[in-house]
Amino acid sequence: MRTQALLGGGFGAALIIRPRTVLRSVGADPALPGLVLTTRVLGARHLVQAAALGLAPARVAPWAVRVDGLHVASMLALAGLPGLNPGYRRAALASAGVATALGTGAFTTHARSSSAAG
Prior knowledge:
elongated, 5 helices, mainly alpha, 118 residues
């Protein structure tokens, strides 16, 4: 679970410290209104979740999976809006992909540790 916390925290830090670089890397335009601020807020969410996951993995992992799942659903819904600027769509799909990976990792690790304990 520590790996999941480190990955999520590292990603969150990158979103806060270098949002424009991250956005450009997924083909999104950092000049789009609100995109850099939203990216930083998402980075803060990842940092808080990673810290909680690192401190209390057994208690936090099930909630982390749910939060990531809701994030994926919201990003896919946003990406599917007709007329959405392609830059926003790319950012939303990239965010959904990362949340899917982090949530799947947390779920898998938690499931393994739960079955080993029980």
